[in-house]
Inverse folding.
């Protein structure tokens, strides 16, 4: 394939968190990455570094990845002090090396939260999110035949809002960005996507109670409305979801049956 | 009942308590500022001293004041509980974390600002509230001529433990309306005559400003009172009303007394 731009290879210094397993202490280890193309994605850059490590007989850097197109929520990485790196509204796999400069030092750390223990290197256990989802992030309906189109009227504004909440990929950047390691943006998005739609109504109030209770049990921190989660979320989930969750939770606990 | 205690011990419940006590204190600030504007009256503190008596002896206000003291204590304790939990939620921190890239400074420093305010409240209440209730406070006697209300004589009465806080009567022999009250105004003049005390107040009001720039609108967000149409209005009120106007109003008092009294 012809390269459209002639860009020099970049030389980078990486400081990567290496940790053997959950029970050992980790540390930042420095690596040189000398042949980095600005066209590489951040994960491809790590792949290249890993190739080198494997050739040398070292243990490659472990990191989560899957779809590599920003829709699965597997990739994480706290890059130079920010979840998913310096760019707005993208995941780590969508971050390209052209966002950095030749000679840069890049510090790569795992998500830091008691609820997300490190499994190895940059891989954390995010099953706390799964357990929150299992607690109530679904609707219990028997799937019968396909209903007729437009038999459940939903306004465009509400449908858009619900779909915006539903774009959350559960990557955990909100927890990673929050100074309190709070999961409220994630939980509120999962509560909102159903609370806004007619299909979500029958279980609306039990759902928010169950999910918030599970969230508390997992040991996440408490929201202090700093807005860091919203700013760092690769899907740009809005803080108004948290307000909606709070509203539903208080309604459920104080006013409902 | 069990359900309710569960509600208030949950993460969202604790935040609800923070928001409600915080907003209650915000309402108090408005009343406190409006009342204390009487300090600017050039009447040797007659209006202010009568107001101080009303605020400490009128039963509904007394009830509200005890609610307020409770709010301050509860707000501080819950802040401590929540902060401890938040610290526990991230036992190992980042080597690098760019908070400034994604959140305002005020929102990340509410605890420090709150601590400054709590210290201020202790000093402030010790100087005025405790003095008014239990201190060796002198009295001031205001004699207003009934025939000419412009003619007022003020006499200072030294501390007398048997003197009641406030007396108001007509002396028909002299033809004067006499008000004798505890002279809190004198304490204000003395306190605000010290430069370090004025400085302490100005710094504390700056802390109040930053605390409320984040806190006021944040409370509404926590309560879930968020709406595309009204949230900008609440944020505007939080910044310009509670973040600027109210702290400026309070800071103006010690500055005015220091330079002009």
């Amino acid at each position: 394939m012809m390269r459209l731009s002639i860009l020099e290879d970049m030389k980078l210094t990486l400081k990567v968190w290496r940790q053997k397993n959950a029970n050992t202490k980790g540390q930042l280890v420095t690596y040189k990455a000398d042949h980095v193309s600005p066209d590489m994605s951040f994960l491809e850059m790590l792949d290249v570094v890993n190739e080198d490590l494997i050739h040398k007989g070292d243990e490659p850097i472990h990191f989560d990845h899957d779809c590599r197109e920003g829709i699965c929520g597997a990739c994480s990485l706290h890059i130079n002090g920010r979840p998913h790196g310096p760019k707005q509204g993208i995941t780590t796999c969508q971050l390209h090396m052209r966002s950095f400069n030749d000679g840069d030092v890049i510090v790569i750390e795992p998500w830091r939260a008691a609820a997300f223990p490190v499994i190895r290197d940059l891989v954390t256990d995010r099953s706390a999110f799964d357990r929150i989802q299992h607690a109530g992030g679904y609707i219990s309906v028997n799937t019968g035949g396909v209903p007729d189109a437009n038999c459940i009227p939903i306004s465009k504004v509400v449908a858009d809002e619900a779909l915006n909440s539903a774009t959350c990929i559960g990557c955990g950047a909100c927890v990673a960005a929050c100074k309190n390691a709070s999961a409220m943006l994630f939980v509120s998005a999962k509560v909102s996507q159903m609370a806004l739609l007619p299909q979500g109504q029958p279980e609306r109030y039990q759902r928010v109670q169950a999910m918030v209770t599970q969230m508390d049990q997992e040991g996440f921190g408490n929201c202090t409305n700093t807005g860091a989660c919203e700013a760092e979320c690769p899907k740009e989930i809005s803080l108004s979801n948290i307000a909606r969750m709070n509203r539903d939770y208080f309604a459920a606990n104080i006013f409902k049956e | 009942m069990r359900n309710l205690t569960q509600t208030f011990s949950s993460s969202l419940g604790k935040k609800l308590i923070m928001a409600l006590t915080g907003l209650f204190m915000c309402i108090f600030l408005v009343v406190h500022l409006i009342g204390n504007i009487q300090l600017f009256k050039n009447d040797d503190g007659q209006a202010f001293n009568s107001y101080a008596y009303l605020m400490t002896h009128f039963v509904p206000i007394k009830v509200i004041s005890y609610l307020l003291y409770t709010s301050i204590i509860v707000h501080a304790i819950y802040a401590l509980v929540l902060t401890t939990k938040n610290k526990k939620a991230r036992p190992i921190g980042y080597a690098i974390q760019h908070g400034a890239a994604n959140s305002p400074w005020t929102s990340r420093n509410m605890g420090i600002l709150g601590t400054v305010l709590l210290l201020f409240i202790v000093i402030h209440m010790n100087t005025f509230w405790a003095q008014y209730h239990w201190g060796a406070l002198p009295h001031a006697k205001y004699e207003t001529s009934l025939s000419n209300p412009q003619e007022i004589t003020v006499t200072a009465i030294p501390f007398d433990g048997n003197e009641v806080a406030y007396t108001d009567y007509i002396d028909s022999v002299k033809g004067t309306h006499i008000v004798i009250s505890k002279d809190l105004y004198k304490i204000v003049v003395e306190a605000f005559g010290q430069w370090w005390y004025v400085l302490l107040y100005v710094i504390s009001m700056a802390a109040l400003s930053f605390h409320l720039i984040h806190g006021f609108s944040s409370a509404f967000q926590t309560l879930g009172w968020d709406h595309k149409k009204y949230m900008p209005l609440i944020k505007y009120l939080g910044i310009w009303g509670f973040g600027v106007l109210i702290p400026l109003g309070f800071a103006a008092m010690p500055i005015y007394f220091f330079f002009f009294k």
About this structure: Strands of chain A lie at 10-18, 27-36, 78-79, 82-83, 105-109, 118-120, 123-124. The radius of gyration of chain A is 21 Å.
